[in-house]
Each structure stands twice: as structure tokens, then as C-alpha cells.
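Repro:
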Amino acid sequence: MMDDHKLAPEAPVEPVIEAQSEPGAAAAAPVDQPSAPAAAPVSPAVEKFRSCRWRATPEDGEFCTHRDVLPFAGKEGFVAESWCPDCAFYKLRRTPKKRERVDYTY
């Protein structure tokens, strides 16, 4: 014979319903939970590389497109620490300013 008492739960199971918190309730979160790990600090060479005008577009990859650097550094495995701290070709990327109509009258 089968034991029917093994198939039936011993105590009724109630569904757990979580209360929706308000936007300001995030500060009341339990302290014992570890916070998200902080992003690793970025070296000055990497910061310089990311703002350099010779950096390839992100779709192409992370490498320097300058004609004197590219043959030596290559496109694969570019290391900003090796090239960017004292790069003589570095120039900051800037967005062009909108000129006044008076500046380019012909």
C-alpha cells in the first residue's frame, strides 16, 4: 500500500507577497547586505587614451589609429599604459563650437 500521508504537505503553504517599497525606502535597506563593488580605478593613461583624438571608434575596438603608433601597437591587445602616459601625438577630442553667422560671411 501507498502511504498517503507522505504525499500531502504537513502544513499549508502560504504565498509570500512582498510589499512594494516607496522610492525613498531604499535608505532603509538592511545594513548587513554587501553593497555593489566599486568600479576599479582607471589609470591616468587609460583616461588620456579615452579622450585622445586618435582613439578608434568604440565599434572598431580599443586601439590608437595614429599612423606612427598603429604599426607598432597594433589593433589587438592595445595597452594604453605602454603608449599613452607620454604620447606626443595626444590631442584632446573637442566638440566643435557652433560659429556665429558673422564669423563666416563670404
